[in-house]
Amino acid sequence: MSAVLPVTPPVEAAAGYRHSVRRFARNRLAVAGLVVVILFLLFSFLGPLLYSTDQTHTNLTQVNLAPGGAHLLGTDAVGHDELGRLMYGGRVSLLVGLAAGILATVIGTLWGAIAGYAGGWIDAVMMRVVDAGIAIPALFILLVVSAITTPDTVGLILILGLVSWLVPSRLVRAETLTLKNRDYVLTLRAVGGTHGRAITRHILPNSVSTIVVAATFQVADAILLVAYVSYLGLGVQPPSTDWGGMLSAGLTAAYSGRWWLIVPPGLAIILVVCAFNAIGDGLRDTFDVRGRG
Amino acid sequence: MSILEIENLGVTFSTETGDVPAVRDVSLRVRPGETLALVGESGSGKSTVALAAMGLLPGSARATGRVRVGGTDVIGAAEADLAGLRGRTASMVFQEPATALDPLTRIGAQIAEVIRNHRPVPVKDAAREAVELLRRVGIPEPERRAFAYPFQLSGGQRQRVVIAMAIANAPSLLIADEPTTALDVTVQAEILDLLRGLAADSGTGVLLVTHNMGVVADFADRVAVMLQGEVVETGPVEEVLLRPTDDYTRRLLEAVPRLSLADPPSGARDRPVEEPVVDLREVSVRFGRGRRAVRALDGVSLTVRPGETVGLVGESGSGKSTAARVALGLVAPSAGSVSLFGADLGRAGGRARRALLSGVGVVLQDPVASLDARMSVGECVAEPLRVHRRGMSSAERRARVADVLELVRLPRDLAHRGPRELSGGQRQRVSLARALVLRPRLLVADEPTSALDVSVQRSVLEVIRELQDELGFACLFVSHDLAVVQQFAQHVVVLRAGRIEEEGSTATTLLHPRTDYTRRLIAAVPVPDPVLQRRRRDERRAAMGVKA
């Protein structure tokens, strides 16, 4: 009888998670991105508790004040405090961006996993749907939809989610194609395991890094899309607003030198979008997966 | 004077977790016209030595000591000097011919490029030389084939093209890193014949890196055995392979499965008569449809009876893995029928099919891909229980997993570890534990040990055999290695291009084959005994009508 094999001591593998964190932490840009996102989240959601302002009623005695004094970033054309409005708009931008990005990733993941796993004509039909969707610019669909109805926050999340799941579905499908022929999936099927089990226990958990990376980029894209739509006046309606809406409202004022209506929301959008992209790049390097395109 | 001199070579890789020494204090020499085989198991550092000799170590490696190729120092040499050396004084043949060639360039042009890299030859002359080289390496119709793309050639022909590129500038040193590992045995024998002829004709020194002792016996003049980065034994091939002095060399040679060439003492056993556990009747499988359809199997009938082991052998593309997958219900036959334990697998649906499949265990080839790295060993082994024994409590399940781990000679507490922490042999034992956790009546093993080192292979095969005696399951054993099948199976089926070429009891079929194909297959297997191998080689070449 052969002897019980001695087992090599655990080599760092238990620390795989910590190892990933360390790799991520070494990417300065990604860490900076994470810090920026966290700061903006705190600013938008906790900020109003420390710096409370009235963002529902107009105050025509306090319009177009320059930064300084009681209003750190001045006020806009209807007397809303600009700093408070930045927090208030950030809530919508970040909430819609995060929710829509995650929704798009969830839809794309399911669609891609099913198409890739099923293969054959099901895959062909499902991916032609994706091709067709990618051929139509998302912005065009958004404008048409926004022209027909005026969406509330939930509506906006649904619409953005439904137009931007196409790219993640392609990524997940590609991942699924390689995973479904792994020996452990074949072994499971050979002992009578169901397709559902193969997808939920093996394929999705092993695609999780691809999915997380895709989700990060989706969030960045969604925040940008919200800004587009609102800038064109078709997003959330006043008195509610978001950073894109603020830009739009402040644009006329910019010519009269009231830069404080333009620069803060513009910077906020740029910083947050860049931050999410930096996080996505960092995660992609950490997990060593192919990201977009 | 030696063409390759390595003195006190040390190579250290710097990794995220610190420095890892890969090669320590290695000294070797290759003289013109001589073949030195560098052998060892995976991780022994043999390929690192080969790369160091070409100055091709990756950036994370630090080399110390001295490497001289044709009188030029390689370590610390400027990249420009190395570029002049590579492909001209020394050239290299890699393991995988599919990735060694540019898929988008015609092979004639690829060879001509190598020529023009080192010699100012007009384009036309280079093209003519390329055709000549193709002829020398035995490509039929070289004038026409020079315009072929790599994908239009077979694996063996691609390796011939790689060799043509390597010898294009008449190098004095050829480094071949596992040059035949990706090839079938019959092709391997041809490529080794070719390399031997080229080396003898031109007086080229060859550094052959390999794990295959048969290849060493067939090709090498001298052997250096490596273990964990150090050379443990060096000497002439007859000495090292037949009278090894080092303990490790002896153990390594003992573990090599040898094709037995003489009649076994006992006569062939009769096959059991009980109803077969798996029965393939006239099974055909086609992939694709229309004119581009590929017939993977064509009218194959085979049975495995309770308690016996049936070996399924054949070269790549012969359909042996497809046949195993048909038996597992993973591939549906386009014609014919499959029955498992007496019930028709094709007709059984849903619950009945699942019940049938619960009687089958599977072990596949790749030790890395066989286990989901995101699960613990325990979860991997428990997966069949979760599929078929839904009512089982988690405590019961844990106990069963621990029991079956013990059965395959692994520690019970391995269940908490991740597959990444295990070696290849341990992983294959975990796969075996998973296959046996439902107490199957049939084990299907598709090349279960071909990715493992010989010593590990032996221990895994021993475990399977002992458990078969203990538990009495039948086994369908797929392998390209005739020596392993000979030791392991009672009945053997030889497949060729999707059809059964020959079948019978292992004892008679592999010693007295009835068909030419099987005879050629057996003759091509190199045995790890240089004297015997030389005789077999001459016999094989005589049978093929080639002058020795």
Automatic annotation (TrEMBL), chain A:
Q: Which UniProt keywords apply?
A: Cell membrane, Membrane, Transmembrane, Transmembrane helix, Transport
**Membrane-spanning segments:** 29-51, 92-117, 129-148, 154-172, 211-234, 259-280
User: Transmembrane: is it a keyword of this entry?
Assistant: yes
Tagged with keyword Plastid: no
- UniProt membrane topology term: Multi-pass membrane protein
**Where located?**
Cell membrane
Q: Which InterPro entries match?
A: BP-dependent_transpt_permease (IPR050366), MetI-like (IPR000515), MetI-like_sf (IPR035906), OppC_N (IPR025966)
ABC transmembrane type-1 domain mapped to chain residues: 90-280
Per the record, its GO cellular-component terms are:
plasma membrane
Please give the Gene3D superfamilies that the UniProt record associates with this protein.
Answer: MetI-like (1.10.3720.10)
Name a single GO biological process. transmembrane transport
Known Pfam families for this protein? BPD_transp_1, OppC_N
Q: What protein family is recorded?
A: Belongs to the binding-protein-dependent transport system permease family.
Protein name according to UniProt: Peptide ABC transporter permease
Species whose genome carries this gene:
Streptomyces albiflavescens
Lineage, please?
Bacteria, Bacillati, Actinomycetota, Actinomycetes, Kitasatosporales
Automatic annotation (TrEMBL), chain B:
- A Pfam match: oligo_HPY
Q: Which GO terms describe its molecular function?
A: ATP binding; ATP hydrolysis activity
Which biological processes are named by the entry's GO terms? peptide transport
Instruction: Report the CDD domains cross-referenced here.
Output: ABC_NikE_OppD_transporters
| UniProt keyword annotations, A-Z | ATP-binding, Cell membrane, Membrane, Nucleotide-binding, Transport
- Where is it mostly found? membrane
Gene3D superfamilies given in the database record: P-loop containing nucleotide triphosphate hydrolases (3.40.50.300)
Tagged with keyword Transmembrane helix? no
Superkingdom to which the source organism belongs: Bacteria
> Which GO cellular component terms are attached?
plasma membrane
Record-stated family: Belongs to the ABC transporter superfamily.
Name this protein carries in UniProt:
Glutathione ABC transporter ATP-binding protein
Q: Which organism is it from?
A: Streptomyces albiflavescens
